[in-house]
Structures are given as C-alpha cells and as structure tokens.
Amino acid sequence: MELKKSPFYSNTGDIPFGSNISMHVRKKIFAHLMEVYSPTKRTKILDVGVTCEDSHMESNFFEKLYPFKGQITCVGTEDGSHLVKKYEGLKFQIIKAGEMLPFKDREFDIVFSNAVVEHTGDVDGQRFFISELCRVADKVFVSTPYRWFPMETHTCLPLLHFLPKNIFRGILRGSRYGFWAYEQNLNLLSMRDLLGIFPHEMDVKSKNIRLAGFISNIIAYTL
C-alpha cells in the first residue's frame, strides 16, 4: 500500500540526519513514559496523533517501541490504518480535529500524545484537546517541542520563532513554509503554556528532554 505524504513531515528532511536526531529524542520521551508508568500487557493505552506517514524512522514511533502492541488503540486525523496491518492486535480509528474523542470516560489506563498539542489551534483549542485526553484515561502523558529550542523543528529554521508569533507567522506566510504560518497548524508552547492548559485542579508533573544541552521537548504527565 502506498502511503500519503503528511504535511506535518513536509520540511523535516531539510536537516541532515534529522530523522536519526528526532528518533533519539523520541526514544528519550518513550523511556520516560515507561519509567513513570511501568505498563504491563494488561494496560490499555491510547495513542493520540498517529500519522499516515511511515517513511521516516520516527514516524509512529510509539507503535514501533511499545512492547504490548495488542493493547494499543491509536487515533489520528490522518489515515493510520496501515498500522493495523503492521502490528497484530492494534486498533485504529480516524478522528476529526477539534471534536470529542470517540471513547467513554476513563476507557483507557494511559493516554499518550506526542507532538500534537501544538497543532490544535489557539489556547482554547489546546485546552479542549487536553481536557479530552484527561476525560478518556486515568493517566495522561503529553509531549511537545519546546517553544524556545533554537531550531524550530517543523520548519527546520533557526531562531525565527523567537520573534513575536505574529511576526514569525508573517514571515512564513507566502513562503515554502506557509502551512506553518497559521495558528491552527502550529502554536508552539513553553512549559508554562503546557502546564497552564491542563485543568487547574490536576496535579501535573513535568520533564524536560535535552538535545545538545538545550531543552528540545517538554513533557507534562499525571500520576
């Protein structure tokens, strides 16, 4: 089956060894999840944000690394049905951006989502996304690229994203990076931003992932 190209991977090939670097970071994220939760073969886990893209090493890395494939349910706005054929017992369902997840309250033990929340629009959209993760699982684990990492990981452009967001988006608009100029496609978060979109009554822990000495990704999770 020939897979479609995902716009979310449209510029990641611009950095030599980019996939190797990305996979290195994502393995650190995965290792922290396994350390925090110690899931077993009975743990029901939901992965929110799988992609149709499977040509990059880091694509759908959770499904590659997680040992209990039959306990994974995954969802995404792109077609991830190829994962059902690739991993025995895995379940996939397509969803629409900005809508409720098609699951009951607390249906899962853990919900995992990597590099998705920055694509869910403005603060209200991000809060809704997080609230849905909190609704469907007992424990929530969310990671996202760090707002202040020197290279913006979607465009592979250095330092431009340090500018005020409206100026950064104005520069991108009309360029080959125009997809990322719109808030619904890219709205980067600091740790304060990420923790601030969780329900205030929740006890949320945080973790920084570093690359070459810089914080590259941030994690927020509940116990």
Structure report:
It is a single chain. The mean pLDDT is 95. Helices cover 26% and strands 22% of the residues. Strand 8 and strand 9 form a beta hairpin. The protein is globular and about 50 Å long. The protein contains six helices and nine strands. It folds into two domains: 17-96 and 103-147 and 188-222, Rossmann fold, CATH 3.40.50.150; 152-185, no CATH class. It has helices spanning 18-37, 61-65, 82-86, 123-136, 165-172, 191-196; strands at residues 45-48, 72-76, 91-94, 108-114, 137-145, 151-152, 157-158, 204-211, 214-222. The termini are far apart. The protein has a seven-stranded mixed β-sheet. By secondary structure, it is α/β, with parallel strands linked by helices.
Layout of helices and strands:
Blueprint: H1 18-37, E1 45-48, H2 61-65, E2 72-76, H3 82-86, E3 91-94, E4 108-114, H4 123-136, E5 137-145, E6 151-152, E7 157-158, H5 165-172, H6 191-196, E8 204-211, E9 214-222
